[in-house]
Amino acid sequence: MLVEHLHGTALRAGPLRFPAGRPGLGALPEHVTLTGHGSWWADDPADPRAAAVSCAGHAILAGDPRRTAPEELACLTGHYVAAPDRFLPLLGAAFHRLVPWERMIWIRSDPPPAVRLGPGTTVRRLLPRDTQALRTLGPDLAWTSASWGGPAGLAASGRCWGAFREGQLLSLACTFFAGSRYEDIAVATLPGARGRGLASACVEALCADLTTRGRVPSWTCSRDNHASRHLATRTGFRVVHEYVHYAVGAAVVPPGQRTLPRGLRETGGSAGADSRPPS
């Protein structure tokens, strides 16, 4: 029985399946299926026993690590990888560097008090015509649109709210990974516009929209990102789960030199070009 149909490649039911309806990074597999942004790999598309899914520089591994070889993970070079502990020996053999990052997943609980903005500032949903406004945020904030294939994809998604003043986009809150129950959000503000409540106002507008659509907002950040944790608390989120993902460096065997006699084989999609920082 077919349980997933991914960009023309069917993965048949077997002992391996990515659960649906998960918050935080758990929404990544559903996001790739929903939007087409990202990539899937499996040892056997007809009967997968080991698989990976990636988007915007994040990846999840699942299944049996014995079903793939270290060189076959070269496709995940430079990613933040979340995987069960049983995959650690495989990851250690696959990459020259493996750096753990402690992460926190938050869920929206109680809506915070309304934010009052200064005159001339407007918070609204971004539209396709706002693609250029997203581009003007610059390379440091380009990660916010990576999971949608870039600024044009995010602007057309209907899942981004921004704070504008005199036509300039100063801050935004957007869905980074869209799942069937949870949507994990990303927030960014230009350095010169911080401390004005703009991010809080964008988060409030996005969360109200998610609630109307029957989705639950989630928030993911590193344990040591105190600014992100403070903003999450201020906008009504509470911690529900902690985990570790790994920033991986260069592959021991570069992608151009790997062979695929067995193990992970790409089943469809296109990986995002930018990485979400560990924020």
Strand content: 25-35%
Q: What value does the Rg take, in angstroms?
A: 19 Å
Low-confidence regions:
1-10, 258-262, 269-279
Helices, by number, come to 6
Helix fraction, binned, reads: 10-25%
**What's the count of strands?**
14
The major beta sheet can be summarized as: 12 strands, mixed
Order of helices and strands: EEHEEEEHEEHHEEEHEHEE
**What class would the helix/strand composition place it in?**
alpha+beta
How do the strands of the widest beta sheet line up side by side? Answer: 8-9-10-11-12-7-13-6-5-4-3-14
Mean pLDDT: 87
User: What would you call the shape?
Assistant: elongated
The first-to-last residue Cα distance is 39 Å
Task: Give a brief rundown of this model.
With 279 residues, the chain is α+β, with helices and mostly antiparallel strands. Helices cover 18% and strands 34% of the residues.
How is this fold's topology laid out?
Layout: E1 2-6, E2 9-12, H1 28-35, E3 38-42, E4 50-55, E5 58-63, E6 80-82, H2 88-94, E7 98-108, E8 121-125, H3 131-135, H4 151-157, E9 160-165, E10 168-178, E11 182-189, H5 198-212, E12 216-222, H6 226-234, E13 237-248, E14 265-270
Parallel strand pairs: 5-6, 11-12
Antiparallel strand pairs: 1-2, 3-4, 3-14, 4-5, 6-13, 7-12, 7-13, 8-9, 9-10, 10-11
Key phrases:
279 residues, alpha+beta, twelve-stranded mixed β-sheet, 6 helices, disordered N terminus
Description:
The chain is α+β, with helices and mostly antiparallel strands and 279 residues long. Helix content is 18%, strand content 34%. The protein has 6 helices and 14 strands. It has helices spanning 28-35, 88-94, 131-135, 151-157, 198-212, 226-234, and strands at residues 2-6, 9-12, 38-42, 50-55, 58-63, 80-82, 98-108, 121-125, 160-165, 168-178, 182-189, 216-222, 237-248, 265-270. A 12-stranded mixed β-sheet has the order 8-9-10-11-12-7-13-6-5-4-3-14, sandwiched between helices. The protein has a two-stranded antiparallel ribbon with strand order 1-2. Strand 10 and strand 11 form a beta hairpin. Mean pLDDT is 87; it is low at 1-10, 258-262 and 269-279.
